[in-house]
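Data card: per-record layout.
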Amino acid sequence: MSKCFNIAVLGATGAVGRQMIECLEEYKIPVGKLSLLASARSAGQTLTFNGKPVVVEEATEKSFEGMNFVLGAVSNAMSKAFAPAIVKAGAVFIDNSSAFRQDPDCPLVVPEINGEDAFKNKGIISNPNCSTIITLMAVAAINKVSPIKNMIASTYQAVSGAGQGGLVELETELDDIHNGKKPQPKVFPHQIAMNVIPFIGSMSEADYTTEEMKMQNEGRKILHLPNLTVSCTCVRVPVMRSHSISVVLRTERKVSVEEARKAISVFPGCRLADDMDGRNYPTPLDTSNQDIVYVGRIREDLTDPNGLNLWCCGDQIRKGAAANAVQILKLMIEK
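The structure for this 335-residue chain is written out next.
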């Protein structure tokens, strides 16, 4: 990778945007010019890249001229607003929002699973939902052994999934409880400290939330399984960082526990943590601040002979968002 690339980070001052900047450093992306873009409110801040200060600029339609890639960490509305200017400028937009995920002309990519799809882009590549990425990383190796027919998933999502405000709210509520004060939730609909909230997103079809439907709709596209069915329940839990998911999956043919363990142990980006005697299984604390998805508790499902149960954890801000986007970028420039 001797050539250098001009890269913009749209939404640079948010939690995911800041993590994207760190990942650009960690993955040693050859950056010629780095443009850090945000709203007018955030413009003027100074962030650091490779030890040097970079001033954040207000994003305008002219901000993308001369850029090769744009990493997006903004809302659906902002992604849709700036996408035409990014494509017109000749840059590839790797977008972390859900704005284009179901667009048939827009690849939805997890590099370890369907990296080849990235090269079919027409200027925009979508980053999948965080829980979808972590779950599919855990089951993709099994899908290679025998195609998955359906899944039942329960997610245990850290407050980081709601951005910096979610982290602050949990810390504030814990302090309030410690000091005998009644927490006043603002980011979440209920108190999250010492509690769980079984509702993430907004209402969608058949009383499932938008967050819950992403697992099926995005899973079909990423795994190239158009008939995949998924029943999902998404739960917010009082964990700072790293999402956890319990999965029951059913395959076309029976896949043994040992076959599943072997396949997962060699799948890129996964780590098998499945030693019950040693109490070795994935936890949010073990998987935070890194990009590997840990998989464990692999066992036969007792309700279906072709079923398997597993548990996985992965960092929502990194592999679930920023790092996956940078890995897509790295894949594009290497080839």
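Known properties of this structure: Residues 318-334 form the longest helix (17 residues). The chain has two domains: 5-128+321-334, 132-316.

See the next section for split statistics.
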